[in-house]
Amino acid sequence: MRKYFLVAALVAAVSPLGALVREAEAQQPRGIGSPVAILDLTYIFKNHLRFQQMSDGMRRDVEAAENALKGERETYRKMTEQLETYRKGTPEFKAMEEQLAEKAAKLNLQVSIQKKDFLEQEAKIYYNVYQEITEHVRYYSEQHGIALVLRFNGDPVDRNDPQEVLKELNKSVLYYNRSIDITPVILEEINRKAPGGPQGGAVPQTSTPGAPGFAPPGAPPGLPPRR
């Protein structure tokens, strides 16, 4: 029996991860289930109420810009048709040809500028929301003695899609106890501040089948599976 204890001690001593977990456990308050937790970031983005509202607002802006360009494109099309009524080499043909070239250049520049602006807006939205999520994760982890939060994806895999299969094979988290999934807790806290957000715990379903969420004292109960 003593031999097995020595072997176990030797394995733990040479394992950096084992040392990290031991240190986290030593600092962990009583009543916390684990010093390590997981978070489905993709699922939170999909169900983040204010992110959805901002994305919908941006989508409307894109559609409005596209509708505005439709009028310009229609004008260009009519000018092209008018050009076909002129004989090549005539002053009218040359003048219309110059107008078309100028119109095309203006349209291309307008589209390029709008595309750049919308990409920058989208990047800013994603970045700000990501910062908000990580801040919630940091605060929750510090409050509940969690030393490490790993990102994972709980979406089911389409076996017929090579790209999804490849993602599955490259996953960092191969196994987890569902009790360490803090996705529902973080999502609920984030959405609580959104207009029309949940009051008292009505939140979207978790990414993990039957996940009770991370369950320290006072934590919200688990959520039903979404699959």
Summarize this entry quickly:
The chain has 227 residues and is mainly alpha-helical.
Q: Please provide the count of β strands.
A: 2
Which regions are unreliable across 5 or more consecutive residues at pLDDT < 50?
1-22, 27-32, 200-227
- Which architecture of the largest domain per CATH? 2-Layer Sandwich
Classified by CATH, the class of the largest domain is Alpha Beta
Can you tell me the number of structural domains? Answer: 2
Q: What is the helix fraction of residues, given as a range?
A: 55-70%
Would you identify the CATH H-level superfamily of the largest domain?
Skp domain
Strand content: under 5%
Order of helices and strands: HHEHHHEHH
Radius of gyration: 28 Å
**Count of DSSP helices?**
7
The neighbouring-strand order within the major sheet is 1-2
Q: Span between N and C termini?
A: 46 Å
Structure commentary:
- With 227 residues, the chain is mainly alpha-helical.
- It folds into two domains: 1-30, no CATH class; 31-192, Protein Binding, DinI Protein, Chain A, CATH 3.30.910.
- The protein has seven helices and two strands.
- Strands 1-2 form a two-stranded parallel sheet.
- Helix 4 packs antiparallel against helix 5 (91-143).
- The longest helix has 53 residues, at 91-143.
- The protein is elongated and about 85 Å long.
- Residues 1-22, 27-32 and 200-227 have low confidence and may be disordered.
